[in-house]
């Protein structure tokens, strides 16, 4: 177990945020803290080594809410206790398409115990699919069927339901795209969208234009930046780790995007990072969103 790595992460987060706060005291944040969460998958390697230290470091950085991707191999009550111990709340979670199709009651039971407010699927590629492989109409139709079946029970349980865009939905489908096919099949009265800014860009789509097109259907953002010069027009949901950049240091015009998000009525801004140095990137991104980093005040 790399305790030195965990310790370095804790110190790095604290130093970065402390310095930024002192430098720009009183700045108006681009996004209110109450609307910010961190997707725990960003730190899945550290969580596997030392979940207690990793979650405490995340809380020390100023984060209060997280988005889960599973319960870290724990029973729901134990996972909730782990979050409570760190002073964190899980605002929502990603679930597998198989779970949504076959285990709706288990999703509801876990959400009730942990306290999730929303649940949704983030990955449709079948097991064994390669990094250069996308999806097709069959995966979209299977997702539509699963959502249609699960929505009534999830909504009755008081949960908000969402679908996470992963970029492969922009591949062609006849005269339109797989996303057109998906949106036509999902009930907008039950299923919100979680727009992942990075994967939208990776597909070669303008995220601001997409927000304006989809309007109120987008209630959550995965807030991720892309390094300038990274390749686009790809519909695989995969990218080299070096393509991920901290917020404000990539190719996204966050002033325009956040303004469009506010107009669309986005409720949650979920930070995620899939780079080789996620803790450092998350610290910089969080400071930017909180208006504590130069260039982050809007």
From TrEMBL:
Signal peptide: 1-25
Keyword Cytoplasm set for record: no
Domain of life: Bacteria
Keyword vocabulary terms for this entry: Signal
KW Signal (keyword) present: yes
SUPFAM superfamilies from the UniProt entry: Xylose isomerase-like (SSF51658)
Domain Xylose isomerase-like TIM barrel: 56-290
Protein name (record): Xylose isomerase-like TIM barrel domain-containing protein
Organism phylogeny: Bacteria, Pseudomonadati, Pseudomonadota, Alphaproteobacteria, Rhodospirillales
């Amino acid at each position: 177990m790399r305790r030195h790595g965990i310790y370095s992460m804790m110190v790095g987060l604290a130093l970065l945020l402390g310095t930024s706060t002192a430098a720009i005291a009183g700045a108006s944040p681009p996004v209110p803290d109450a609307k910010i969460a961190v997707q725990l998958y960003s730190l899945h390697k550290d969580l596997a080594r030392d979940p207690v230290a990793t979650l405490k470091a995340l809380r020390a950085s100023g984060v209060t809410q997280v988005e889960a991707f599973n319960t870290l191999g724990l029973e729901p009550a134990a996972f909730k206790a782990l979050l409570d111990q760190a002073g964190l709340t899980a605002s929502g979670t990603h679930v597998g398409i198989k779970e949504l199709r076959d285990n709706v009651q288990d999703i509801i039971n876990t959400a009730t115990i942990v306290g999730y407010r929303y649940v949704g699927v983030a990955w449709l590629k079948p097991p064994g699919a390669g990094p250069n492989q996308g999806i097709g109409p069959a995966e979209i139709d299977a997702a539509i069927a699963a959502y249609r079946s699960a929505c009534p029970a999830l909504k009755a349980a008081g949960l908000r339901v969402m679908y996470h865009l992963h970029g492969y939905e922009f591949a062609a489908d006849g005269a339109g795209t797989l996303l057109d096919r998906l949106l036509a099949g999902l009930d907008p009265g039950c299923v919100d969208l979680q727009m992942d800014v990075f994967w939208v860009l990776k597909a070669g789509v303008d995220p601001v234009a997409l927000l304006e097109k989809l309007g109120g259907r987008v209630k959550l953002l995965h807030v991720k930046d892309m390094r300038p010069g990274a390749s686009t027009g790809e519909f695989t949901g995969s990218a080299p780790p070096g393509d991920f950049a901290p917020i404000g240091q990539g190719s996204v015009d966050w002033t325009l995007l956040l303004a469009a998000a506010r107009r669309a009525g986005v409720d949650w801004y979920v930070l995620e990072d899939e780079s080789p140095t996620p803790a450092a990137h998350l610290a910089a991104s969080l400071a930017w969103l909180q208006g504590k980093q130069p260039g982050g005040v809007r």
